[in-house]
Amino acid sequence: MTYTKIAVNKIAPHLGAEIGGVDLSRPLADDVMLEIRAALAENLVIFFRDQSMTPAEQKDFGRQFGELFTHPAAPQLVPGHPEILTVHADANSKRIDGENWHSDISCDIAPPMGSILYLTEVPPIGGDTLFASMYAAYDSFSPEMQRFLCGLTAMHDGERQHGGRFGSKTNAASEHPVVVTHPVTGRKALFVNPIFTTHIVQLKAEESNALLQFLYLQTQRPQIQCRFQWRAKSVAFWDNRCVQHMALWDYFPHRRHGHRITIRGERPVYLAA
Ligand SMILES: [Fe+2]
After folding, report:
1. pLDDT of 133-173, one tens digit each?
2. 238: part of which helix (H) or strand (E)?
3. Is 139 one of the annotated active-site residues of the chain?
4. How many whole angstroms from 260 Cα to the centroid of ligand 1?
5. Which of 54, 218, 220, 243 counts the highest number of beta carbons within 10 A?
6. Is 102 a catalytic residue?
7. pLDDT per residue rounded down to tens, the chain (273 residues)
8. d(CA 207, ligand 1 centre) in Å
9. How far apart are alpha carbons 56 and 236 in whole angstroms?
10. 224 CB-near residues (< 8 Å, 6+ apart)
11. Is 108 labeled as catalytic in the residue annotation?
């Protein structure tokens, strides 16, 4: 893809690119949006620096990719904006969300297509986010292993992540294919993660546990990852359908603060090629 409206600078071979030449607080022309969509499809996660967005402006940007999703479990801390998920850690924090590999809310029957995180406060050092390409994870398997995985489904349960902290608001459990076909690119991506996936439906418990551990080892290889170093006023926009991520909490007791919006997706499917 040749870009003429935006600058696209890849930060790793399999995924991740910094996008320049865009002010996300302003309405974006159709040709700019076209290139941002293409950059997301090509790079799986895209980053923007030096942005200033109000909650309403962040929502306006997100709505150009689909309907916004209101998180079923998180407390709503921005008055008038229930779609804004506040991401915050400081010296009083006992834990943070997303410290292990996952795609957001994969327990939902139709998990979000993407998430847009905007940080306004970052620690002096640390607090990076890691991203991994689930296309690259799938592509790394032998054809026979790929055939085996494509015939399987797995349960994803929100209770594993949210259980007990937010009452009974988020007990969603859904069965999804272990390999999903991306609705835009048509590529196949591995779709199991250690935060939400409980077991593979067609296998015995021991088989399921062993296979999931093997798959997680593959998905967590540094070779298929990128690592984003935040600065204040940076934005990360990741595609949950083909990317997993994890947040590093290596900056305690420092503050890290921002707003996330989440864009609705479709029910994941596997389409035989
Ligand atoms: Fe997350």
Report:
1. 999 999 999 999 999 999 999 999 988 776 545 444 555 89
2. strand 234-239
3. no
4. 10
5. 243
6. yes
7. 899 999 999 999 999 999 999 999 999 999 999 999 999 999 999 999 999 999 999 999 999 999 999 876 677 788 889 999 999 999 999 988 888 999 999 999 999 999 999 999 999 999 999 999 999 999 999 999 999 999 999 999 988 776 545 444 555 899 999 999 999 999 999 999 999 999 999 999 999 999 999 999 998 999 999 999 999 999 999 999 999 999 999 999 999 999 999 999 999 999 997
8. 27
9. 17
10. 14, 15, 132, 133, 136, 137, 140
11. no
Q: Find out whether 42 and 254 touch, Cβ atoms under 8 Å.
A: no
Contact partners, residue 220, CB within 8 Å, separation at least 6: 101, 132
Query: Structure tokens of 116?
Result: 């847009």
Active site residue 81: no
CATH number of the domain at 7-263, out of 3.30.420.40, 3.90.1150.10, 3.60.130.10, 3.40.50.1860?
3.60.130.10
CA atoms within 13 A on the CB side of 107: 23
CB contact at 8 A, 52 and 36: no
DSSP letters along 181-232, please? E-TTT--EEE---TTTEEEETTS-HHHHHHHHHHHHHHHT-GGGEEEE---T
Tokens standing for residue 39:
């950059």
**Which amino acid is it at 44?**
L
Residue with tokens 């079923």: 72
